[in-house]
DNA sequence: AAATAACTCAACCGCGCTGAA
DNA sequence: TTTCAGCGCGGTTGAGTTATT
Protein backbone atom coordinates (compact mmCIF):
# COMPACT_ATOMS: atom_id res chain seq x y z
CA UNK A 1 0.00 0.00 0.00
CA UNK A 2 2.74 2.30 0.87
CA UNK A 3 4.30 1.83 -2.46
CA UNK A 4 1.22 2.59 -4.42
CA UNK A 5 0.59 5.55 -2.23
CA UNK A 6 4.03 6.80 -2.79
CA UNK A 7 3.67 6.36 -6.46
CA UNK A 8 0.45 8.26 -6.59
CA UNK A 9 1.92 10.88 -4.40
CA UNK A 10 4.89 11.23 -6.64
CA UNK A 11 2.71 11.57 -9.62
CA UNK A 12 0.72 14.19 -7.89
CA UNK A 13 3.82 15.97 -6.87
CA UNK A 14 4.87 16.00 -10.43
CA UNK A 15 1.56 17.41 -11.41
CA UNK A 16 1.69 20.00 -8.69
CA UNK A 17 5.12 21.01 -9.68
CA UNK A 18 3.99 21.31 -13.20
CA UNK A 19 0.97 23.28 -12.22
CA UNK A 20 2.71 25.38 -9.71
CA UNK A 21 2.60 28.97 -10.76
CA UNK A 22 5.62 29.59 -8.64
CA UNK A 23 7.51 27.25 -10.85
CA UNK A 24 6.12 28.66 -13.97
CA UNK A 25 6.07 32.17 -12.75
CA UNK A 26 8.79 32.56 -10.26
CA UNK A 27 8.01 36.16 -9.82
CA UNK A 28 4.48 35.66 -8.74
CA UNK A 29 5.26 36.24 -5.16
CA UNK A 30 6.24 32.92 -3.80
CA UNK A 31 8.76 32.98 -1.04
CA UNK A 32 12.07 31.26 -1.14
CA UNK A 33 12.69 28.37 1.11
CA UNK A 34 15.97 26.65 0.68
CA UNK A 35 16.17 27.71 -2.86
CA UNK A 36 12.69 26.53 -3.55
CA UNK A 37 10.15 29.04 -4.56
CA UNK A 38 7.15 28.33 -2.45
CA UNK A 39 3.88 28.68 -4.08
CA UNK A 40 1.28 31.09 -2.85
CA UNK A 41 -2.28 31.64 -3.72
CA UNK A 42 -5.15 29.27 -4.16
CA UNK A 43 -4.60 25.61 -3.70
CA UNK A 44 -5.18 23.21 -6.49
CA UNK A 45 -6.96 19.96 -6.03
CA UNK A 46 -3.73 18.18 -6.69
CA UNK A 47 -2.06 20.02 -3.90
CA UNK A 48 -4.97 19.24 -1.67
CA UNK A 49 -4.66 15.61 -2.49
CA UNK A 50 -1.01 15.60 -1.67
CA UNK A 51 -1.58 17.31 1.60
CA UNK A 52 -4.42 15.05 2.59
CA UNK A 53 -2.41 12.05 1.71
CA UNK A 54 0.55 13.29 3.63
CA UNK A 55 -1.45 14.05 6.72
CA UNK A 56 -3.13 10.70 6.55
CA UNK A 57 0.21 9.06 6.57
CA UNK A 58 2.08 11.25 8.97
CA UNK A 59 -0.56 12.95 10.96
CA UNK A 60 -1.00 16.58 11.68
CA UNK A 61 1.78 18.73 12.88
CA UNK A 62 5.30 19.28 11.79
CA UNK A 63 3.96 21.26 8.96
CA UNK A 64 7.26 22.42 7.72
CA UNK A 65 8.12 18.83 7.07
CA UNK A 66 5.21 18.65 4.70
CA UNK A 67 6.91 20.90 2.29
CA UNK A 68 10.14 19.04 2.62
CA UNK A 69 8.78 15.57 2.26
CA UNK A 70 5.63 15.79 0.29
CA UNK A 71 6.91 17.78 -2.58
CA UNK A 72 4.39 20.46 -2.02
CA UNK A 73 5.76 23.85 -2.76
CA UNK A 74 3.94 25.34 0.10
CA UNK A 75 5.20 26.60 3.36
CA UNK A 76 4.21 24.81 6.48
CA UNK A 77 1.97 27.57 7.49
CA UNK A 78 0.08 27.42 4.32
CA UNK A 79 -0.28 23.66 4.64
CA UNK A 80 -1.56 23.91 8.14
CA UNK A 81 -4.04 26.53 7.16
CA UNK A 82 -5.26 24.58 4.21
CA UNK A 83 -5.65 21.48 6.25
CA UNK A 84 -7.34 23.17 9.13
CA UNK A 85 -9.70 25.24 7.09
CA UNK A 86 -10.53 22.99 4.21
CA UNK A 87 -9.13 19.53 4.24
CA UNK A 88 -9.44 18.13 7.67
CA UNK A 89 -12.31 15.78 8.21
CA UNK A 90 -15.59 16.69 9.81
CA UNK A 91 -15.48 20.18 8.51
CA UNK A 92 -18.87 21.68 8.08
CA UNK A 93 -19.42 23.57 4.95
CA UNK A 94 -22.09 26.01 4.10
CA UNK A 95 -23.90 28.68 5.94
CA UNK A 96 -24.08 28.81 9.66
CA UNK A 97 -27.22 27.52 11.21
CA UNK A 98 -29.26 29.73 13.44
CA UNK A 99 -27.98 27.89 16.44
CA UNK A 100 -24.46 28.42 15.32
CA UNK A 101 -25.05 32.06 14.71
CA UNK A 102 -26.53 32.48 18.11
CA UNK A 103 -23.65 30.70 19.66
CA UNK A 104 -21.17 32.81 17.81
CA UNK A 105 -22.80 35.94 19.06
CA UNK A 106 -22.78 34.69 22.57
CA UNK A 107 -19.24 33.55 22.36
CA UNK A 108 -18.11 36.75 20.87
CA UNK A 109 -19.78 38.68 23.60
CA UNK A 110 -17.76 36.70 26.06
CA UNK A 111 -14.54 36.20 24.27
CA UNK A 112 -14.09 38.95 21.83
CA UNK A 113 -12.09 38.13 18.79
CA UNK A 114 -10.92 34.80 20.01
CA UNK A 115 -11.80 33.02 16.88
CA UNK A 116 -9.96 29.87 17.58
CA UNK A 117 -11.65 29.48 20.90
CA UNK A 118 -14.96 30.21 19.42
CA UNK A 119 -14.31 27.67 16.75
CA UNK A 120 -13.72 25.08 19.41
CA UNK A 121 -17.27 25.59 20.48
CA UNK A 122 -18.51 25.08 17.00
CA UNK A 123 -17.61 21.64 15.82
CA UNK A 124 -16.72 21.53 12.20
CA UNK A 125 -16.26 25.24 11.96
CA UNK A 126 -13.00 27.00 11.59
CA UNK A 127 -11.81 30.12 13.19
CA UNK A 128 -11.43 31.68 9.82
CA UNK A 129 -15.00 30.91 8.97
CA UNK A 130 -16.23 32.40 12.17
CA UNK A 131 -14.07 35.40 11.75
CA UNK A 132 -15.34 36.02 8.29
CA UNK A 133 -18.86 35.49 9.40
CA UNK A 134 -18.45 37.92 12.21
CA UNK A 135 -16.91 40.55 10.08
CA UNK A 136 -19.69 40.23 7.64
CA UNK A 137 -22.19 40.38 10.39
CA UNK A 138 -20.65 43.51 11.74
CA UNK A 139 -20.84 45.14 8.42
CA UNK A 140 -24.36 44.10 7.84
CA UNK A 141 -25.66 45.18 11.14
CA UNK A 142 -23.66 48.29 11.12
CA UNK A 143 -25.13 49.16 7.83
CA UNK A 144 -28.58 48.40 9.07
CA UNK A 145 -28.02 50.42 12.19
CA UNK A 146 -28.64 47.43 14.35
CA UNK A 147 -26.90 46.60 17.55
CA UNK A 148 -24.43 43.89 17.27
CA UNK A 149 -25.48 42.18 20.40
CA UNK A 150 -29.04 41.58 21.36
CA UNK A 151 -29.95 43.44 24.51
CA UNK A 152 -30.75 40.33 26.42
CA UNK A 153 -27.29 39.14 25.77
CA UNK A 154 -25.90 42.31 27.16
CA UNK A 155 -27.89 41.88 30.30
CA UNK A 156 -26.93 38.31 30.59
CA UNK A 157 -23.30 39.09 30.19
CA UNK A 158 -23.53 41.86 32.70
CA UNK A 159 -25.18 39.65 35.22
CA UNK A 160 -22.66 36.98 34.72
CA UNK A 161 -19.82 39.35 35.02
CA UNK A 162 -21.19 40.78 38.19
CA UNK A 163 -21.60 37.36 39.62
CA UNK A 164 -18.10 36.61 38.69
CA UNK A 165 -16.86 39.71 40.31
CA UNK A 166 -18.81 39.05 43.41
CA UNK A 167 -17.26 35.70 43.69
CA UNK A 168 -13.87 37.22 43.29
CA UNK A 169 -13.08 35.19 40.30
CA UNK A 170 -11.89 37.97 38.18
CA UNK A 171 -8.32 37.85 38.92
CA UNK A 172 -5.20 36.14 38.03
CA UNK A 173 -3.98 37.74 34.95
CA UNK A 174 -1.58 34.93 34.62
CA UNK A 175 -4.21 32.59 33.45
CA UNK A 176 -3.06 33.41 30.10
CA UNK A 177 -3.97 30.23 28.46
CA UNK A 178 -6.73 28.98 30.45
CA UNK A 179 -8.51 26.55 28.32
CA UNK A 180 -11.95 27.76 28.09
CA UNK A 181 -12.93 24.68 26.33
CA UNK A 182 -12.32 22.54 29.25
CA UNK A 183 -14.86 24.28 31.28
CA UNK A 184 -18.29 25.30 30.54
CA UNK A 185 -18.65 27.93 28.05
CA UNK A 186 -19.80 30.32 30.64
CA UNK A 187 -16.68 30.40 32.61
CA UNK A 188 -16.91 34.05 32.59
CA UNK A 189 -14.10 34.99 34.86
CA UNK A 190 -11.43 33.34 32.92
CA UNK A 191 -12.87 34.33 29.72
CA UNK A 192 -13.06 37.80 30.93
CA UNK A 193 -9.60 37.85 32.01
CA UNK A 194 -8.27 36.27 28.97
CA UNK A 195 -9.95 38.88 27.02
CA UNK A 196 -8.80 41.44 29.35
CA UNK A 197 -5.29 40.31 28.98
CA UNK A 198 -5.59 40.33 25.33
CA UNK A 199 -7.17 43.65 25.34
CA UNK A 200 -5.95 45.36 28.33
CA UNK A 201 -4.40 47.94 26.22
CA UNK A 202 -7.79 48.79 25.08
CA UNK A 203 -9.31 48.47 28.44
CA UNK A 204 -6.76 50.56 30.04
CA UNK A 205 -6.54 53.06 27.35
CA UNK A 206 -9.88 52.94 25.96
CA UNK A 207 -10.00 56.14 24.22
CA UNK A 208 -7.84 55.34 21.34
CA UNK A 209 -9.42 56.89 18.44
CA UNK A 210 -9.64 53.91 16.24
CA UNK A 211 -11.70 52.25 18.79
CA UNK A 212 -13.77 55.17 19.42
CA UNK A 213 -14.55 55.25 15.89
CA UNK A 214 -15.91 51.94 15.18
CA UNK A 215 -16.60 50.26 18.35
CA UNK A 216 -18.52 53.00 19.86
CA UNK A 217 -20.66 53.40 16.95
CA UNK A 218 -21.39 50.18 15.40
CA UNK A 219 -23.93 49.01 17.79
CA UNK A 220 -25.66 52.23 18.06
CA UNK A 221 -28.61 52.05 15.96
CA UNK A 222 -31.28 54.58 16.20
CA UNK A 223 -32.95 54.40 19.47
CA UNK A 224 -30.59 51.89 20.80
CA UNK A 225 -30.50 51.49 24.42
CA UNK A 226 -27.34 51.66 26.40
CA UNK A 227 -27.41 47.97 26.43
CA UNK A 228 -26.59 48.07 22.88
CA UNK A 229 -23.58 50.06 23.42
CA UNK A 230 -21.11 47.35 23.62
CA UNK A 231 -19.24 47.01 20.60
CA UNK A 232 -17.43 44.29 18.95
CA UNK A 233 -13.78 44.73 18.87
CA UNK A 234 -13.53 43.85 15.33
CA UNK A 235 -13.66 46.42 12.75
CA UNK A 236 -12.76 46.50 9.19
CA UNK A 237 -9.53 48.09 9.64
CA UNK A 238 -8.40 47.29 6.21
CA UNK A 239 -11.23 49.31 4.96
CA UNK A 240 -10.47 52.01 7.37
CA UNK A 241 -6.90 52.18 6.39
CA UNK A 242 -7.69 52.11 2.81
CA UNK A 243 -10.17 54.80 3.36
CA UNK A 244 -7.68 56.79 5.24
CA UNK A 245 -5.15 56.39 2.60
CA UNK A 246 -7.58 57.34 0.02
CA UNK A 247 -8.65 60.26 2.00
CA UNK A 248 -5.38 61.76 2.75
CA UNK A 249 -4.55 62.98 -0.63
CA UNK A 250 -7.78 64.76 -0.88
CA UNK A 251 -7.99 66.13 2.55
CA UNK A 252 -8.26 69.54 1.13
CA UNK A 253 -11.80 69.00 0.56
CA UNK A 254 -12.53 66.18 -1.71
CA UNK A 255 -12.68 63.58 0.91
CA UNK A 256 -15.35 61.17 0.28
CA UNK A 257 -17.35 59.74 2.96
CA UNK A 258 -15.80 56.58 3.98
CA UNK A 259 -18.06 56.13 6.91
CA UNK A 260 -21.57 56.41 5.89
CA UNK A 261 -22.56 54.07 8.59
CA UNK A 262 -21.32 56.37 11.24
CA UNK A 263 -24.11 58.66 10.75
CA UNK A 264 -26.43 56.52 12.59
CA UNK A 265 -24.44 56.55 15.71
CA UNK A 266 -25.10 59.17 18.12
CA UNK A 267 -26.58 59.94 21.41
CA UNK A 268 -25.64 57.50 24.05
CA UNK A 269 -22.40 56.68 22.52
CA UNK A 270 -21.02 60.03 22.42
CA UNK A 271 -21.28 60.73 26.02
CA UNK A 272 -19.18 57.77 26.72
CA UNK A 273 -16.36 59.35 25.01
CA UNK A 274 -16.11 61.71 27.84
CA UNK A 275 -15.82 59.02 30.25
CA UNK A 276 -12.48 59.29 31.87
CA UNK A 277 -11.47 55.83 32.35
CA UNK A 278 -8.17 55.12 30.87
CA UNK A 279 -6.13 55.79 33.91
CA UNK A 280 -7.80 53.52 36.24
CA UNK A 281 -6.54 50.21 35.03
CA UNK A 282 -9.61 48.78 36.50
CA UNK A 283 -8.57 45.23 36.07
CA UNK A 284 -4.98 45.57 36.53
CA UNK A 285 -3.89 44.83 40.01
CA UNK A 286 -0.64 46.42 39.23
CA UNK A 287 -0.86 49.62 37.34
CA UNK A 288 2.79 49.45 36.68
CA UNK A 289 2.37 46.12 35.15
CA UNK A 290 5.14 45.19 32.93
CA UNK A 291 2.85 43.66 30.56
CA UNK A 292 3.79 45.27 27.38
CA UNK A 293 0.32 45.09 26.19
CA UNK A 294 -0.35 47.99 28.34
CA UNK A 295 1.85 50.35 26.69
CA UNK A 296 3.17 51.87 23.66
CA UNK A 297 3.30 50.00 20.53
CA UNK A 298 1.44 47.04 21.62
CA UNK A 299 -1.67 48.90 22.02
CA UNK A 300 -1.23 49.78 18.50
CA UNK A 301 -1.37 46.25 17.65
CA UNK A 302 -4.69 46.20 19.20
CA UNK A 303 -5.64 49.07 17.16
CA UNK A 304 -5.02 51.52 19.86
CA UNK A 305 -2.95 54.24 18.65
CA UNK A 306 -0.41 55.24 21.15
CA UNK A 307 1.90 58.10 20.83
CA UNK A 308 2.95 57.97 24.39
CA UNK A 309 6.17 56.31 23.56
CA UNK A 310 7.03 57.09 20.07
CA UNK A 311 9.13 54.29 18.89
CA UNK A 312 9.56 54.78 15.24
CA UNK A 313 10.24 51.61 13.52
CA UNK A 314 8.80 49.48 16.17
CA UNK A 315 5.40 50.82 16.22
CA UNK A 316 2.87 49.38 14.03
CA UNK A 317 1.41 52.62 13.20
CA UNK A 318 -1.98 51.72 12.40
CA UNK A 319 -3.65 54.96 12.07
CA UNK A 320 -7.14 55.46 12.97
CA UNK A 321 -9.26 56.38 10.12
CA UNK A 322 -9.79 59.54 11.95
CA UNK A 323 -6.37 60.65 11.31
CA UNK A 324 -7.17 62.21 8.17
CA UNK A 325 -9.11 64.58 10.18
CA UNK A 326 -6.01 65.41 11.85
CA UNK A 327 -4.70 66.51 8.57
CA UNK A 328 -7.39 68.99 8.75
CA UNK A 329 -5.91 70.46 11.77
CA UNK A 330 -5.28 73.35 9.66
CA UNK A 331 -8.86 74.01 9.90
CA UNK A 332 -8.72 74.14 13.59
CA UNK A 333 -9.49 77.61 14.49
CA UNK A 334 -9.43 78.56 10.96
CA UNK A 335 -12.09 79.00 8.51
CA UNK A 336 -11.07 75.93 6.75
CA UNK A 337 -13.99 73.82 6.04
CA UNK A 338 -13.84 70.20 6.57
CA UNK A 339 -15.03 68.04 3.84
CA UNK A 340 -18.50 66.85 4.38
CA UNK A 341 -17.34 63.34 4.78
CA UNK A 342 -15.70 64.07 8.00
CA UNK A 343 -18.80 64.89 9.75
CA UNK A 344 -20.03 61.45 9.53
CA UNK A 345 -16.89 60.31 11.10
CA UNK A 346 -17.30 62.74 13.83
CA UNK A 347 -20.80 61.90 14.40
CA UNK A 348 -19.79 59.29 16.80
CA UNK A 349 -17.49 61.58 18.59
CA UNK A 350 -20.02 63.56 20.22
CA UNK A 351 -20.75 65.32 23.36
CA UNK A 352 -23.05 63.79 25.80
CA UNK A 353 -26.64 64.49 25.48
CA UNK A 354 -27.53 67.33 27.69
CA UNK A 355 -28.83 65.20 30.46
CA UNK A 356 -26.93 62.11 29.79
CA UNK A 357 -25.19 60.30 32.50
CA UNK A 358 -21.91 58.91 31.61
CA UNK A 359 -21.81 55.39 30.63
CA UNK A 360 -18.96 53.18 30.24
CA UNK A 361 -16.71 54.17 27.56
CA UNK A 362 -17.90 52.37 24.64
CA UNK A 363 -14.45 52.42 23.33
CA UNK A 364 -12.82 50.48 25.93
CA UNK A 365 -12.81 46.91 24.94
CA UNK A 366 -11.08 47.29 21.78
CA UNK A 367 -10.49 43.78 21.21
CA UNK A 368 -12.82 42.25 23.60
CA UNK A 369 -16.31 41.25 23.72
CA UNK A 370 -19.40 42.50 25.28
CA UNK A 371 -18.60 41.12 28.61
CA UNK A 372 -15.46 43.06 28.97
CA UNK A 373 -17.24 46.17 28.09
CA UNK A 374 -19.86 45.47 30.65
CA UNK A 375 -17.35 44.60 33.22
CA UNK A 376 -15.37 47.61 32.39
CA UNK A 377 -18.35 49.74 32.81
CA UNK A 378 -19.23 48.20 36.10
CA UNK A 379 -15.73 48.69 37.29
CA UNK A 380 -15.64 52.21 36.18
CA UNK A 381 -18.82 52.98 37.91
CA UNK A 382 -17.74 51.50 41.14
CA UNK A 383 -14.09 52.14 41.22
CA UNK A 384 -12.52 55.22 42.55
CA UNK A 385 -9.27 53.87 43.74
CA UNK A 386 -6.96 55.06 41.14
CA UNK A 387 -6.14 58.61 41.76
CA UNK A 388 -6.24 59.68 38.25
CA UNK A 389 -9.33 57.85 37.64
CA UNK A 390 -10.75 59.31 40.72
CA UNK A 391 -10.08 62.71 39.44
CA UNK A 392 -11.40 61.78 36.15
CA UNK A 393 -14.44 60.19 37.49
CA UNK A 394 -15.35 63.38 39.12
CA UNK A 395 -16.11 64.43 35.70
CA UNK A 396 -17.77 61.29 34.83
CA UNK A 397 -21.22 62.50 35.16
CA UNK A 398 -21.24 65.37 32.96
CA UNK A 399 -23.39 67.71 31.29
CA UNK A 400 -22.11 69.23 28.19
CA UNK A 401 -21.21 72.28 30.07
CA UNK A 402 -19.35 70.20 32.54
CA UNK A 403 -17.38 68.73 29.84
CA UNK A 404 -16.50 71.95 28.36
CA UNK A 405 -16.15 74.16 31.30
CA UNK A 406 -14.49 72.16 33.93
CA UNK A 407 -14.07 68.57 33.23
CA UNK A 408 -11.98 68.96 30.28
CA UNK A 409 -9.68 71.30 31.97
CA UNK A 410 -9.36 69.27 35.05
CA UNK A 411 -9.01 66.17 33.18
CA UNK A 412 -6.37 67.54 31.06
CA UNK A 413 -4.47 68.70 34.03
CA UNK A 414 -4.66 65.29 35.40
CA UNK A 415 -3.71 63.67 32.23
CA UNK A 416 -0.79 65.83 31.58
CA UNK A 417 0.43 65.36 35.03
CA UNK A 418 0.34 61.75 34.36
CA UNK A 419 2.31 62.10 31.29
CA UNK A 420 4.75 64.38 32.84
CA UNK A 421 5.53 61.80 35.34
CA UNK A 422 8.53 59.95 34.05
CA UNK A 423 7.48 56.99 36.06
CA UNK A 424 4.14 56.98 34.61
CA UNK A 425 3.73 54.05 32.38
CA UNK A 426 2.42 56.37 29.80
CA UNK A 427 0.39 53.59 28.84
CA UNK A 428 -2.38 55.40 27.35
CA UNK A 429 -2.35 56.56 23.93
CA UNK A 430 -2.23 60.11 23.01
CA UNK A 431 -5.48 59.50 21.42
CA UNK A 432 -6.91 58.49 24.67
CA UNK A 433 -5.67 61.64 26.20
CA UNK A 434 -7.26 63.55 23.50
CA UNK A 435 -10.43 61.80 23.91
CA UNK A 436 -10.48 62.04 27.59
CA UNK A 437 -9.44 65.58 27.83
CA UNK A 438 -11.03 66.98 24.88
CA UNK A 439 -14.42 68.32 24.94
CA UNK A 440 -15.86 66.67 22.02
CA UNK A 441 -16.23 69.20 19.42
CA UNK A 442 -18.38 69.22 16.50
CA UNK A 443 -17.22 67.40 13.57
CA UNK A 444 -19.02 69.12 10.95
CA UNK A 445 -16.55 71.78 10.45
CA UNK A 446 -17.61 71.87 6.95
CA UNK A 447 -20.71 73.38 8.22
CA UNK A 448 -18.94 75.58 10.59
CA UNK A 449 -18.54 79.17 10.02
CA UNK A 450 -15.44 80.84 11.24
CA UNK A 451 -17.43 82.55 13.86
CA UNK A 452 -18.34 79.25 15.25
CA UNK A 453 -14.88 78.52 16.25
CA UNK A 454 -13.54 81.75 17.30
CA UNK A 455 -11.13 81.54 20.16
CA UNK A 456 -12.75 81.47 23.49
CA UNK A 457 -15.93 80.15 22.21
CA UNK A 458 -17.30 77.20 23.95
CA UNK A 459 -18.02 74.04 22.27
CA UNK A 460 -20.03 75.15 19.50
CA UNK A 461 -23.36 73.76 18.82
CA UNK A 462 -23.23 72.58 15.35
CA UNK A 463 -25.66 72.06 12.75
CA UNK A 464 -25.91 68.51 11.76
CA UNK A 465 -28.06 68.62 8.78
CA UNK A 466 -25.84 66.34 6.93
CA UNK A 467 -25.68 63.87 9.67
CA UNK A 468 -28.30 61.35 9.29
CA UNK A 469 -30.14 61.01 12.51
CA UNK A 470 -32.95 58.71 11.88
CA UNK A 471 -34.75 59.52 15.03
CA UNK A 472 -34.05 63.13 14.84
CA UNK A 473 -32.15 63.21 18.03
CA UNK A 474 -30.39 66.38 18.78
CA UNK A 475 -27.77 65.10 21.05
CA UNK A 476 -25.14 65.34 18.53
CA UNK A 477 -25.43 68.99 18.31
CA UNK A 478 -22.86 69.49 20.95
CA UNK A 479 -19.78 67.96 19.72
CA UNK A 480 -16.16 68.49 19.80
CA UNK A 481 -13.81 67.29 17.30
CA UNK A 482 -12.28 64.61 19.32
CA UNK A 483 -10.69 63.13 16.38
CA UNK A 484 -8.40 65.95 16.03
CA UNK A 485 -5.12 65.17 17.58
CA UNK A 486 -4.78 68.68 18.63
CA UNK A 487 -8.22 68.82 19.89
CA UNK A 488 -6.68 68.68 23.25
CA UNK A 489 -5.10 71.93 22.55
CA UNK A 490 -8.16 73.39 21.24
CA UNK A 491 -11.22 74.75 22.83
CA UNK A 492 -11.26 76.25 26.19
CA UNK A 493 -8.67 74.23 27.76
CA UNK A 494 -6.09 75.34 25.36
CA UNK A 495 -7.36 78.80 25.49
CA UNK A 496 -7.16 78.95 29.20
CA UNK A 497 -3.83 77.35 29.30
CA UNK A 498 -2.33 79.71 26.89
CA UNK A 499 -4.03 82.68 28.28
CA UNK A 500 -2.65 81.81 31.64
CA UNK A 501 0.77 81.46 30.27
CA UNK A 502 0.62 77.76 30.57
CA UNK A 503 1.32 76.96 27.04
CA UNK A 504 4.83 75.99 27.87
CA UNK A 505 3.47 73.58 30.36
CA UNK A 506 1.28 72.20 27.75
CA UNK A 507 4.06 71.93 25.33
CA UNK A 508 6.25 70.28 27.86
CA UNK A 509 3.63 67.82 28.59
CA UNK A 510 3.19 67.13 24.98
CA UNK A 511 6.86 66.81 24.52
CA UNK A 512 6.93 64.38 27.35
CA UNK A 513 4.20 62.51 25.80
CA UNK A 514 5.42 62.50 22.31
CA UNK A 515 9.06 62.89 22.74
CA UNK A 516 10.69 66.14 22.05
CA UNK A 517 12.72 64.96 19.20
CA UNK A 518 9.69 63.49 17.83
CA UNK A 519 8.08 66.81 17.71
CA UNK A 520 11.10 68.75 16.79
CA UNK A 521 11.34 66.91 13.60
CA UNK A 522 8.35 68.64 12.44
CA UNK A 523 7.46 72.04 11.57
CA UNK A 524 5.83 73.96 14.18
CA UNK A 525 3.47 76.45 12.95
CA UNK A 526 1.29 78.71 14.90
CA UNK A 527 -1.46 76.73 16.33
CA UNK A 528 -4.90 77.70 15.47
CA UNK A 529 -3.82 80.39 13.24
CA UNK A 530 -6.80 81.60 11.50
CA UNK A 531 -4.74 83.09 8.82
CA UNK A 532 -2.93 80.04 7.76
CA UNK A 533 -3.93 78.34 4.64
CA UNK A 534 -5.86 75.25 4.96
CA UNK A 535 -3.98 72.45 6.51
CA UNK A 536 -1.46 74.61 8.20
CA UNK A 537 -3.03 75.41 11.44
CA UNK A 538 -0.98 72.77 13.07
CA UNK A 539 -0.33 72.73 16.65
CA UNK A 540 2.40 71.08 18.50
CA UNK A 541 0.05 68.42 19.48
CA UNK A 542 -0.14 67.36 15.97
CA UNK A 543 3.42 66.36 15.72
CA UNK A 544 3.00 62.85 16.79
CA UNK A 545 0.28 62.40 14.39
CA UNK A 546 2.24 63.85 11.65
CA UNK A 547 4.89 61.38 12.31
CA UNK A 548 2.65 58.52 11.62
CA UNK A 549 3.18 56.76 8.42
CA UNK A 550 0.49 57.62 6.10
CA UNK A 551 -0.13 60.90 7.73
CA UNK A 552 0.77 63.89 5.78
CA UNK A 553 3.54 66.01 6.99
CA UNK A 554 2.94 69.59 6.76
CA UNK A 555 5.62 69.78 4.22
CA UNK A 556 3.80 67.19 2.26
CA UNK A 557 0.56 68.89 2.34
CA UNK A 558 -0.62 70.34 -0.84
C1' DA B 1 -25.71 44.89 -21.02
C1' DA B 2 -22.12 47.24 -18.84
C1' DA B 3 -20.17 49.44 -14.97
C1' DT B 4 -19.76 49.82 -10.34
C1' DA B 5 -20.29 48.70 -5.58
C1' DA B 6 -20.70 45.49 -2.11
C1' DC B 7 -19.91 41.13 -0.37
C1' DT B 8 -17.64 36.68 0.58
C1' DC B 9 -14.04 33.90 1.56
C1' DA B 10 -9.53 31.74 0.96
C1' DA B 11 -5.10 32.76 1.84
C1' DC B 12 -1.26 35.43 3.52
C1' DC B 13 1.30 38.09 7.03
C1' DG B 14 3.19 39.26 11.31
C1' DC B 15 3.40 38.60 16.02
C1' DG B 16 3.79 36.10 20.15
C1' DC B 17 4.04 31.84 22.67
C1' DT B 18 6.18 27.47 23.60
C1' DG B 19 9.42 24.04 23.99
C1' DA B 20 13.63 21.98 22.60
C1' DA B 21 18.49 22.47 21.83
C1' DT C 1 19.89 31.38 30.18
C1' DT C 2 19.62 32.15 25.52
C1' DT C 3 18.45 31.08 20.94
C1' DC C 4 15.67 29.33 17.53
C1' DA C 5 12.26 26.73 15.08
C1' DG C 6 7.55 25.39 15.04
C1' DC C 7 3.18 26.60 15.61
C1' DG C 8 -1.20 29.03 16.45
C1' DC C 9 -3.74 33.07 16.35
C1' DG C 10 -5.69 37.37 14.93
C1' DG C 11 -5.60 40.70 11.53
C1' DT C 12 -5.35 41.86 6.73
C1' DT C 13 -5.55 41.38 1.80
C1' DG C 14 -7.27 40.57 -2.62
C1' DA C 15 -9.63 37.75 -6.08
C1' DG C 16 -13.94 36.10 -7.31
C1' DT C 17 -18.88 36.55 -6.99
C1' DT C 18 -23.18 38.82 -6.52
C1' DA C 19 -26.11 42.79 -6.33
C1' DT C 20 -27.24 47.25 -7.77
C1' DT C 21 -27.40 51.17 -10.73
Cα radius of gyration in angstroms? 25 Å
Q: Approximately what portion of the residues adopt beta-strand conformation?
A: under 5%
Low-confidence stretches: 1-31, 168-369, 372-558
Strand neighbour order, sheet with most strands: 1-2
What is the helical fraction, as a range of percent?
40-55%
Q: How would you spell out the order of helices and strands?
A: HHEEHHHHHHHHHHHHHHHHHHHHHH
Question: Tally of extended strands?
Answer: 2
Described by strand count, sense and barrel closure, the largest sheet is: 2 strands, antiparallel
Q: Give me the number of helical elements.
A: 24
Terminal Cα span: 70 Å
Mean pLDDT: 45
Number of domains: 2
Classification by helices and strands? mainly alpha
Tell me, briefly, the overall form. Answer: globular
Amino acid sequence: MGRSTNESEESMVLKVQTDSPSIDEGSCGGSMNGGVVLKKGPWTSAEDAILVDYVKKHGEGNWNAVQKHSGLFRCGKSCRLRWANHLRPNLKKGAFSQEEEKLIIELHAKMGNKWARMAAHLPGRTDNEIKNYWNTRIKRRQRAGLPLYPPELCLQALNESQQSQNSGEVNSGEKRHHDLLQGNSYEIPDVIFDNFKANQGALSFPSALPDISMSSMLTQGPGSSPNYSFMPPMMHRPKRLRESEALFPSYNGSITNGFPEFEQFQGDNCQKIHRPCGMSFPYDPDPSSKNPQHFGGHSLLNGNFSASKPTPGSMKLELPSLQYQETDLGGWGTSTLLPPSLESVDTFIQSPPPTGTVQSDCLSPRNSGLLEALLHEAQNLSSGKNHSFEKSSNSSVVTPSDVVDSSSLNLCDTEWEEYSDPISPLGRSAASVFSECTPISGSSLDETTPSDIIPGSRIKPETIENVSTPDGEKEISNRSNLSRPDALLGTDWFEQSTENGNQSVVNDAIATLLGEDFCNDYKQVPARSSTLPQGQGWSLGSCAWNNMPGVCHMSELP
